[in-house]
Write a structure and sequence with these properties.
binds flavin-adenine dinucleotide; alpha/beta; Rossmann fold; seven-stranded mixed beta sheet; protoporphyrinogen ix oxidase, domain 3; five-stranded parallel beta sheet
């Protein structure tokens, strides 16, 4: 009888003290957002990443020269100042205001403003405009107004004409996507704005900033919670989720299903670091307009959350877009075509059968997502999960 009582008491104790356990694969922004929300709601979370560092593609660090480097390309945060994503991130970092400006390097070595605006057109056509109306009517005179674009190349011609397209848009786009802009859907080219005023900012948003102590510190603060355990240098493989009540996988969805419907296409980027003793660049990021392999270069110590260099050189990073074969495992930009979207939809439908797994992040959702949208999407995923209590 006494033995039965002890057994029942033990069972009750186990039930009361049982905490749900969730696995999150990927310590990037998507995974860390989910982990934090669940941890704050009493769930034990194990976050696993195959890399040796947290923060995924927004990882930054200070090098020996006291410069803050973003290892996977420059990341600029921009959004509406009332965004829920910004409110969430502001719990984990202070911000330094920074409005991003980009220059484009021309054939003769000089640079001009990007995205195309009044200043760019004045520089290229050696003209002076007094007001926006004049700029607009000039653009109308050089663009192909009668063309109804069926692809990115035609969109360029219809919006700014061939001369500006040949300098600023066609070579860059071809390098970026590895195909002629004629092969790309109109939606790819439509991301690039054309302005009739002198606004040379890269983004329009009313909040533009960098985390004061870097993105890695921000993610470190997000993951600092008694209910979160982080395992680095740990590659997820199928089946590991069995030990957990639920798994959020920020991993390529096609890989999980052994590419049964074929591979989802991505573009990757190789980063080439150089030490430069020359003058500062005319902006932290300078785009190339030539036919070389490089799309852009970044001078890190020009960003306001970088320290001043301690030696007499600046660190620059040159970007070379490439195929996944040239940079295996480094997924950057999902290539959206009709065919790839259909393929992803098949994988998505298949994944609905797995009640205990949710695919997340850029590669789980096969979607290019900026940082703030990434936070908002994953806040919603985590909150929906808590609501329907799948566990
Ligand atoms: C070149 C580039 C520039 C960008 N610039 C900007 C910008 O200026 N502004 C902006 O707002 N956004 C920018 N972004 C977008 C930003 O990087 C994303 O919003 C953000 O990184 C999304 O994070 P994620 O968690 O989805 O993916 P990731 O950061 O890629 O995180 C996924 C993590 O999962 C891990 N992982 C994958 N598979 C496994 C496995 N099997 N086992 C264990 N771990 C695994 C990976 O190692 C990685 O750390 C840029 C993106 C790129 C590619």
């Amino acid at each position: 009888m006494a033995f039965d009582n002890i057994l029942i008491e033990n069972i009750i104790h186990v039930i009361i003290s049982y905490k749900s356990r969730v696995l999150v694969v990927g310590a990037g922004l998507a995974g860390s957002t989910i982990a934090r929300v669940l941890a704050e709601n009493g769930i034990e979370v194990v976050v696993m990443d195959k890399r040796k560092h947290i923060a995924g593609n927004i990882f930054d660090f200070v090098n020996d020269n006291n410069e803050r480097i973003h290892r996977y390309g420059p990341h600029l945060l921009h959004c509406n100042e009332s965004s829920e994503g910004l409110v969430f991130l502001s719990r984990f970092t202070k911000w330094i205001n920074y409005e991003h400006r980009v220059r484009a390097q021309l054939e003769n070595g000089t640079t001009t403003s990007l995205p195309i605006n009044k200043i760019t057109i004045q520089d290229i056509y050696k003209k002076k405009f007094d007001n926006e109306k004049e700029v607009k009517s000039f653009i109308d005179s050089i663009r192909n107004k009668n063309l109804i674009p069926r692809n990115t190349d035609e969109l360029f011609e219809a919006s700014v004409g061939n001369k500006l397209s040949d300098i600023f848009l066609r070579p860059y786009t071809k390098k970026m996507w590895g195909v002629d802009p004629k092969e790309l859907a109109v939606s790819i080219g439509s991301r690039l704005p054309v302005r009739t005023n002198s606004d040379s900012r890269y983004f329009n948003d009313n909040f533009q900033a960098l985390p004061k102590y870097g993105y890695t510190k921000m993610i470190e603060n997000m993951l600092k919670h008694i209910n979160i355990k982080v395992l680095l240098d740990s590659k997820y493989s199928k089946g590991m989720e069995i030990e957990y009540d639920h798994a959020f996988l920020c991993t390529p969805i096609d890989e999980f299903y052994d590419y049964c419907y074929g591979e989802l296409p991505y573009r990757s980027i190789l980063f080439e670091e150089r030490k430069s003793k020359g003058n500062d660049l005319s902006a932290p990021v300078v785009n190339f307009t030539d036919n070389s392999i490089y799309t852009r270069k970044t001078q890190w110590n020009l960003f306001p959350n970088s320290g001043k260099r301690i030696s007499n050189f600046n660190t620059l990073t040159y970007e070379i877009p490439c195929s996944m074969r040239e940079n295996p495992g480094e997924y950057y930009y999902p290539v959206h075509t009709k065919e790839s979207r259909k393929k992803y939809e098949k994988y998505r439908k298949l994944s609905l059968q797995k009640e205990k797994i949710t695919f997340c992040g850029r590669t789980g959702l096969f979607r290019y997502i900026d940082m703030i949208p990434a936070v908002m999407i994953h806040l919603k995923i985590a909150k929906d999960f808590l609501k329907i209590k799948k566990i």
